[in-house]
Every structure is written in C-alpha cells, then in structure tokens.
Design a protein that fits this description.
Length: 291
C-alpha cells in the first residue's frame, strides 16, 4: 500500500511539473502574500502553468483556504496587490505583442479579453479569439504562441490600476481544465496628457486674454487721460471765450448794471445785450461754463 501511495504522489508531482500553459509576455500576475491569505499556501504553491480546477481541488481541504475571498475564477486567484510592479501603461490604439507558452496541449477554445475585475465580466468584445486552441490533433499553432492585440477605447473604465486586466482564457472542456493568465494595465494616459495640454492651452489663452485686457485697460486709461486733458483744455478755452463775450457785450451795451457774484455783471437794457449776458451767467452757474 505504501508503494502505491508513493507512486501516486510521484505521478502527481510529474503531472504538476509538466504544467500546461500561461502568458509569459508581458509579465503576468503571479502568486503573492494576498493570494496566500485568501486562497491558502497550498494554492499559492501550485504550478503557475496549471489549471484552476486542480488548484481548487488542492486548496479546498486546507485550513487557510477562504472560498468567499479566494477569487480563483478571476486570474486564477492571483491579485493586483501582489503584482503592482508589473502594471502596464497603454494608450488607445496601441498594438501590444504577447507571448503564450503551451507545455502540454489540450484541445479547447480560447480568447484574449479585457476583463473588469470588479465584476469578472468582459468589457466589449474579445481582443482575440480561437475556435480551436492547442489542438491535440493538429498541434499548437504559431499564432497561439505569439500574437498581438490592439487596445480599444474603453473610456475611463480602465484608468485606475487594478480595475482591469487583459486575460488569456483557455478552456479545455473535454478534460475539464481551465487556464487563466492576466496582465495588469491602465489605459487613458494619452487622454490625460491631452487634457493637461488643453488645460495648458486654456491657461495660455487666459493669460493672453488677461494681457490683452490689461493692454486695453491701459489704452482706456490713456484715452481717459487724453480726454481729461481735452476737457481741461476745453474748459480753459471756454473760460477765456466766456470772459471775452462778457467783456465785449458789456462794452457794447448801455443801461443799468448789476453784479452777480464775483465775476458776472449784467447790463439791464431789456435787449439783446442783457439776454446774452444772462445766458452766459446761467451756463456758468449750472456748470457748463466756468469763469
């Protein structure tokens, strides 16, 4: 019996060592302290090339396995918190080369998709799909090992680190084995730069507008000064002209005179002279003229 157990253990080790497949580039998520805390040490020790079903079979009987917290069906339980240094920064339309390593083929289907890690749902359409992947009949194809994906416009959904992953999903249903590999990334930095440039442009425009306003204000002030000077000149001219009019009318008019204030004397002749002098005096009294 002991011999059989030893052989069984050895076979299990060989199967585990053989592995199956995972993304190798860009650098994918791997096990870390948070995975150990949620899925258990034995789960974290499983071959990174192995399938999710085998991981859960090992973990479920361990005391440090917490099924409510272990997200085995999202990136095989590997977390962003354990892989922050691997975060990729992409822009919309960027072509990203990827590499996948198959150590043991199992006919199945596969896709490469952007996944929302909060909901474990694909965002939009798969970036790449395989109706047949790692076929046992025809063998692994070159396009299954080396390929590229184009980053789509996902708005702001993947602007926060850890919010999204590019996930390679391979399901060999005939043998009930599923493999998941994930790349952490953010997209939208290009938009942020654009916004920053736009903000800088707006700032420059505002500065230019302020400068223009200041120049206009200075021009207005200059105009106001000029206008003030013109008014002063006009006032001086008015005073001179008014004094001349009064002097002329007084010399031409005859009759009784009466002084109003310190500067105006009106001749009462009941004719044109008196009317002119009253008009001049009234104008200077209400502020139109000054003597």
């Amino acid at each position: 019996m002991t011999m059989y157990r030893s052989l069984f253990a050895a076979a299990a080790l060989i199967a585990s060592a053989a592995g199956h497949g995972m993304l190798t580039s860009p650098s994918p998520r791997l096990p870390g302290p948070l995975m150990v805390a949620t899925c258990g040490q034995q789960a974290a020790n499983q071959d990174t090339y192995g399938n999710i079903q085998a991981l859960l079979q090992t973990a479920q009987n361990q005391p440090d396995y917490h099924p409510a917290e272990c997200m085995a069906w999202l990136c095989k339980g590997y977390t962003y918190a354990d892989n922050t240094a691997k975060l990729q920064h992409y822009t919309v339309g960027q072509v990203v080369p990827m590499a996948f390593d198959v150590r043991a083929p199992h006919t199945g289907v596969a896709n490469v998709s952007i996944v929302n890690t909060a909901t474990n749902q694909i965002i939009g359409q798969p970036l790449k799909s395989y109706a047949s992947f790692a076929s046992n009949q025809v063998g692994v194809q070159p396009d299954e090992l080396s390929f590229s994906v184009t980053i789509p416009d996902v708005g702001t959904q993947c602007a926060t680190p850890g919010a999204c992953v590019i996930q390679h999903y391979w399901n060999a249903a005939s043998i009930d084995q599923t493999y998941e590999s994930c790349i952490d990334f953010v997209v939208g930095a290009g938009g942020a730069v654009g916004s920053s440039s736009s903000a800088a442009g707006s700032s420059s425009s505002s500065s230019a507008a302020s400068a223009s306003t200041a120049t206009t204000s200075a021009t207005s002030a200059s105009t106001a000064t000029t206008s003030s000077a013109a008014v002063t000149t006009s006032s001086a001219t008015s005073v001179s002209s008014t004094s001349a009019v009064l002097a002329t009318t007084q010399s031409m008019c005859s009759g009784t005179t009466t002084s109003y204030g310190a500067t105006v004397t009106v001749t009462h002749d009941g004719k044109g002279c008196e009317l002119i002098q009253w008009a001049v005096w009234s104008a200077q009294t209400i502020g139109f003229l000054s003597i």
